[in-house]
């Protein structure tokens, strides 16, 4: 209470007697006494009324399915016979489900770690790049693609045929850059030609060659694209003191040619390695010219003519990305491609809030950039990294779309995960919704610890 002095200034008046309060205060207290209110002053039943639709929806879409799945897991496939814990016993004894559990463990360990690490690297490096925002946009763009579309994209990327699959097109290109491609894969002599085939795929002329008569070697089975642009084959002429001959594609377009005879218009096989072998050792070697002819030195006389198997081996066809051994890592790579942008955006937001003076102080004290990153940046980003890791771990525990779409039928069992096994057990060929419900309960049990960890982390941050 205050009073005004002659000068116009207000001075504090004497405090009210102890135990008394103003009428306004008594009215406010009396109005609130006897009823519970929220922070905003509204009665709690009003807040509950507004929350009721959301609670009903949550109960219908979350609580009821969980309860029904738990109840259904104790019954057989028909849903009429009570089997107790038999379905859970099958979950832990079935080989396909054990494979799914193993693959889920690999997913939980590898996918979030790699995606978070790449997100951290991208977030830190793009701070120093002039076009960092554009780079982040490109990296984040896969998040706009659905899992279904991403699965279709990577199914094509991992195609075995290098002419269709991007991954194998790159692999084959790199391989062929450093290794010679077989000139005529699949080519071979006719059975009546009398050439001996070895275990390594080479063909040997039984009779010894001489310098007087050229040795003709007709072949068939070459692929059309390998001979379509070849020159016409020419008959080799004898050369004094040398062994000559011709290797050609013994096929006349349109028919009418004779087997074992060099007919006009038949194509030469250029680039074929021809060896002269005596007592198992190569004494001379030559390569056929553009017209299919070859010339060996006189030391080859009396030796056997051999065409090594390297001439006819199938070309390198890339990596079997979707084979049993690589299908899970290949699908994880597609997941990282999608979610590394998500991790990068969250980490970049956390990085923007890091005090710059701490980083500058570390640099002034003589710390290198690697030391600043490892000892200052990463510890300060630990809460953000935990958020990203936990979010991705929960996400990969229920991964389904990518595995179902990318993995072909032959290796889908090798790439199996719990969510996919749940679908197959509940709606596949051998329908058993009791086992499917048991898998769903088991998957829920796996998610709960991660969820509890996330809740505890959020509570600790609120206390700060």
From TrEMBL:
| Region named Disordered | 1-34, 180-201
Alphabetically list the UniProt keywords.
Answer: Cell membrane, Membrane, Transmembrane, Transmembrane helix, Transport
Enumerate composition-biased segments (Low complexity): 1-11
Task: Name one matching Pfam family.
Answer: BPD_transp_1
Parts of the chain that traverse the membrane: 45-66, 105-125, 137-158, 335-355, 376-397, 435-455
The Gene Ontology CC terms held by the record are: plasma membrane
ABC transmembrane type-1 domain residues: 101-454
Q: What is its main location?
A: membrane
- Bilayer topology term: Multi-pass membrane protein
Listed name of the protein: ABC transporter permease subunit
State the organism named in the record: Streptomyces palmae
């Amino acid at each position: 209470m205050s009073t005004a002095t002659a000068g116009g200034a207000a001075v504090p008046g004497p405090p009210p007697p102890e135990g008394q309060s103003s009428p306004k205060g008594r009215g406010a207290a009396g109005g609130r006494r006897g009823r519970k209110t929220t922070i905003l002053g509204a009665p709690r039943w009003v807040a509950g009324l507004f929350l009721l639709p959301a609670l009903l929806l949550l109960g219908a879409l979350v609580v009821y399915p969980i309860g029904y799945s738990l109840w259904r897991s104790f019954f057989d496939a028909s849903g009429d016979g009570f089997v107790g814990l038999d379905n859970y016993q099958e979950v832990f004894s079935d080989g396909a489900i054990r494979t799914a559990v193993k693959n889920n463990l690999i997913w939980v360990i590898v996918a979030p770690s790699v995606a978070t690490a790449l997100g951290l690297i991208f977030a830190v490096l793009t701070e120093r790049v002039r076009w960092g925002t554009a780079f982040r946009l490109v990296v984040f763009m896969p998040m706009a693609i659905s899992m279904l579309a991403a699965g279709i994209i990577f199914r094509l990327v991992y195609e075995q045929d290098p002419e269709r699959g991007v991954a194998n097109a790159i692999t084959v290109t790199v391989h062929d850059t450093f290794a010679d491609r077989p000139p005529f894969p699949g080519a071979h002599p006719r059975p009546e030609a009398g050439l001996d085939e070895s275990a390594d795929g080479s063909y040997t002329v039984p009779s010894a060659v001489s310098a007087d008569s050229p040795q003709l070697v007709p072949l068939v089975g070459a692929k059309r694209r390998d001979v379509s642009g070849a020159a016409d084959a020419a008959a080799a002429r004898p050369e004094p003191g040398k062994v000559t001959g011709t290797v050609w594609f013994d096929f006349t377009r349109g028919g009418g040619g004779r087997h074992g005879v060099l007919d006009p218009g038949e194509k030469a096989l250029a680039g074929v390695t021809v060896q002269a072998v005596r007592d198992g050792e190569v004494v001379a070697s030559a390569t056929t010219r553009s017209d299919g002819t070859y010339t060996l030195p006189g030391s080859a006389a009396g030796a056997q003519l051999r065409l090594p198997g390297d001439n006819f081996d199938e070309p390198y066809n890339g990596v079997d990305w979707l084979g049993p051994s690589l299908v899970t890592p290949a699908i994880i790579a597609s997941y990282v491609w999608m979610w590394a942008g998500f991790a990068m955006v969250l980490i970049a937001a956390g990085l923007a809030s890091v005090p710059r003076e701490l980083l500058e102080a570390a640099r002034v004290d003589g710390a290198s950039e690697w030391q600043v990153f490892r000892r200052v940046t990463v510890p300060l980003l630990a809460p953000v990294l935990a958020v990203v890791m936990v979010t991705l771990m929960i996400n990969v525990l229920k991964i389904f779309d990518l595995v179902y779409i990318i993995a072909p039928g032959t290796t889908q069992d090798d790439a199996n995960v719990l969510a996919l096994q749940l679908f197959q057990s509940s709606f596949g060929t051998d329908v058993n919704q009791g086992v499917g419900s048991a898998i769903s309960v088991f998957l829920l049990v796996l998610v709960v610890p991660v969820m509890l960890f996330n809740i505890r982390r959020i509570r600790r941050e609120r206390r700060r």
